[in-house]
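hey so i finally got around to running the thing on that chain from the lab meeting. sorry it took forever, my laptop kept dying and i had to restart like 3 times. anyway pasting the input first so we r on the same page abt which one it is
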Amino acid sequence: MQMRKFRILLASVMLAAALGWLLLGAAAPAFMRIAEISQIIPSAFLACLGTTVFWLVATLLFGRVYCATVCPVGTLQDVAVMARRRTAKKRAFRYHPPLSIRYPILLIYIVSIAAGVLAAGYILEPWNMMRNAASIVQPSDTAMTWGTASDPLSGMALAAGAASGIIALAAIMVWAWRSGKTFCTEVCPIGSALGLLHQQTLMHIAIDPDRCISCMKCEDVCSCKCIKVELRIVDNSRCVRCFDCVDVCPNGAIRFQINKGRSRQTPLFTPS
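ok and heres what got predicted. didnt touch it at all, straight out
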C-alpha cells in the first residue's frame, strides 16, 4: 500500500529530524529545523501562521494525518506498537469506545493557555515533551521555558522539566506497547482538537459492508482501537490515518475514500 509506505517514510524522516534538532542544538544541520516549524503549536507561538493554516486545510481534506506523520510522539508510539507485535503474547487490538476524558482535557488545556498558565502546554503537548526530555542533553532547548542551569532555582525547574519529559515519554511508550495509541486518541489536546473536524473532512476511512468478510484483520491492527468490524464502523475522530487497516484488508473492503455521506459519519460516542 503506497500511502502507508509514504506515511512511514515521512514519519521516520521527521522523527530523525526532530531528534537531531533537539539533541544536537546549534550543531544540528539547519534543514532539521523543519521538524520544529512543521509542528502546529510551536509554529503558532512563532507566529508562523502558514503552518497552522496548512494543517487546518490538510485536516479538512484528509483527517488527522498530522498525528501519524510529523508528530514525533506519535511516531515513537508506532515504534512501541511494532515492538508489541513482535514480543507481546496478545498482539491483536480490539475496538474500544472513546473515553469521556479527551474533551475535558482539551478544555482545560485551552482555558489554561488563554489564562496564561502555560504549564499544561509544556507538559501535555507532544513537541514540548520532546523538548523537555532532550533538555537533559541540551539545556538550551528549554532555557526560555524553565530557566538556566546557572541559577539554582532555575536549575531545579530545568531538572523538573527534563524529568517530566522523560517520565511522560517513557509512560507513553509503555502505554502504547500495552494498549495502543491511546495517548493520541484520548489525552493529546492537539489530536482531540483535530478530531473535532472529522465530520467535515473530505476523505475518511470507511468499511464497505458488501465486501467485508469479517476477517477482523483491520480491527486487529488498529492501534487507535477505532474500528468495529461487527458494526462496520470506523471512528474517524480518533483515526490518525496510519493506513495499517487499509494495507492489511484482503478484500479491499476498508478504504480511504471521499466522504460521500457526511451526515452518516460515525458519532463521537459509538456503542461498545
